[in-house]
Amino acid sequence: MLPADCSRRLVAELQGALDACAERQLQLEQSLRVSRRLLRTWEPAGTLAPEARLEPETKEEDHSPACTPGPQDLKELELLTQALKKAVLARKVTSKAGERAKAPSLKSGSFATSPGMTASTPSWAPGQAGSCASEAKPTRGIRQTTVPAKGHPERRLPSAGNRARVGVGARATRPGPGLRDQHVALSAAPEAPESFTLKEKGSLLQLPTAFRKAASQNSRLWAQLTSAQPRDSTNATAAAKTYFLQQMQTASGRPGPVLSAAEVEAEVGRLQEACSLLRLHMKEELSAAPTDWTQEYRCLLTLEGLQAIAGQCLHRLQELHAALAEQPVAPCPVGRPSRAPPPCGGGAGPFWSPQLLLYSSTQELQTLAALRLRVAMLDQQVHLEKVLMAELLPLVSSQEPPSLALCRAVHSLLCEGGERFLTVLHDDPADS
Amino acid sequence: MGRRRRLVDPAAEAGAGALPKVIAALSRSLPAGPSPEIFRRAKFDRPEAAPALWQLLFRLLSPRSADGASASLALEAQVCLVKSALRSQGYPRLVLAQLPEDGSRGSRELLLALSWLLARGPLPEQLLAQAHVQLGDEIPVCECEALASPGPRVPHVEAEGPVDIRCVQWLMGRLRFRWRCLIASQQEQCTLLSKIHLYTRGCHSDQRLGHLSVAETEMLRDPEGGQQLLRRLERENTGLEAALEWRRGELVFWRWMDTVLGACPPEAPAAATQPTFLPRIAERGLGRLELAARELRALQEELCEATGRRRAAWEARVGGQGRGPQWSSARQALQKAVEQELAALRWAWEQDRGPARPHGPHRLVRCEDEAPGGQHLRAAEVIQALRSQEACLEAALRRLQGQCRQELARLAGALPGLIWILPPRC
After folding, report:
1. What Cα–Cα distance (Å) separates residue A380 from each residue in A106, B181, B393?
2. Is residue A279 part of a domain?
3. Count: domains in chain A
4. Which residues does chain A have within 8 Å of residue B155's beta carbon, measured at their own beta carbons?
């Protein structure tokens, strides 16, 4: 058994790593869901699958126990289904008007029932007429219109958007607007249902104008904003800001600037990098074979210089350590202070890059993504290795006599990444 | 006020209307920005302006991922978080920490804190970038963002007492498994992305891009979601325009803030008993420092040993020979050269290494032709950079493992009568 504080630290560290992994997995799965759905046959908007809504609200609705419909809900549902049946009949009678603007109204009718009620499909017997969309199999009862391949209807009924997120059981007033929309939908145009797959008709798609305008304006504004940055450093504004900061500092009565947590971390990071650079140079010098005395002397001087620098870095770390150790800890009951994410370029680099990343094949993209993950994983492994070394090696060396099981476990963790184990044999002199 | 203007500046002389406009622009560029009236009241330290400013600061300082949950926090909790966050960023004034927890007072101090944050960095742009609507399939080219923010959540599983080492082994195994799953999912996502890009070739109005991204295709599939995306985009555009307006006129604001600071009573100098107040850093920070110190100590020892040997060998070789003038001038030249090299080495890490490496998220574009991309990144370059990083990290890992092996072998050697059979290297 490991001592309590050591256990706590190790478990916390590993759990943190596991959590980080889980978070990535979650994001990846969201993206996968979206992508898979895009590559399937596109459902017309009328029978919207509940999983279309990726906002957190929907997720909560999925899991809330209040999802199961009560008798009130079933009554409303019954009303709605009847109205929709009427609409289906009426539509069969009216001729095709070819009005795209009606599409959203029809959609809004079926919206009323779909979102958020994924958990309770069995109790919805009137499953036809598109009144409910079960999670796996959206019904095609009201598939009267399809989403037109080109563009999308710009005019929408204002109520449609709001209702999309409210579950059926929410309010009794809901069938009201639903019915109203049904009346509008009665004269809607039935269009021949077509199935749409990205594979066949993907190249026919076209982005809506409003979006295109907004997107180009967006990139134009960002370009303006990022080019405005460097100008700042040469004019009066920067001077005014510096002056203000200085005044703030002197007005506070403190002798010198206080180191922020982010700065300390950044400095520790720099010193760690210093360590690896120094080590690299040391290796180079030691492995170089000096051919004459000048080179030998130079090598010697370099090594001594490296040693001096290492000493200075260590000294700086000790200073930081001492400063940290004496600070009073003020408890904050809620969460932790936020940390400004340190950009790896340092300073105020571009906030995000308008530069594109071009790839030429699936293989290349896969390699890129896999390598990225591998680098992240290795970085985590190196960090964990250091942590484990710091915790476990002292344990093993402090035990007298060292427990074999512990030695074996520690060896596997530290030297083999936990993947392989060594074998220990008793060498019994009596037998040989 | 009698303060001499440092520079004649057209913005400052634009008249009385300039300041409210600039403040309004600032408000529009920030999330949850209060009205200019709040700012004016804050200058006079009116209590009614305080809650709005607390909430604004909270919004600015809380981690972006916690938006949904944290918006519902009570004012007291927000106050506490703001204080702690400002402290950890090194806010110099002590008055802030002494403001009441219920958020009822201190609007002038909060105004100063806001300005302090604004002066230190391009805050509106950073916030806008964080909330930026991603239209393309973005893939980060480097891992620094992901590595810098390790799990903001409090770990929900905490070992309460001593655990067996097998628990540690199990957790490591779980971690390995999770990484494998992650890599597999990622490969699938890449395939799907590639297909989507292929199928939508020729659709994009922007010639450079050539095909749609997932977000854009999704928008076409789901017009409702598309409308939401459009609204978000338009909101972002409004924010960007406001930020531009702010940048153009912010000098007026800084002049005004000088007067606000001047109106504050001078702070009593820090009491002698209170030490230089450094922010509370999570235990993790301290641990990292110790790890770094450990590494440096180990390095220093190795260097000490190596230099000792070399110096002894050198003395033995040269000691007998005379020291002529030729020798000393050559020696000086060498010393200088080495000093310069080492100075360059120091600069390498002290300067935080300029943006030589591309970083940050980039939009993925499938482009089969071999035409020189010019200003755009090619996947092959990124792959190369990542491979070299991978090699570095693997070398570091192997070195550490080697160290452990040596150490454990040494400890095992202390136990006679045992044979240690190492697992085969594969």
Report:
1. 52, 16, 10
2. yes
3. 1
4. 12, 15-16, 19
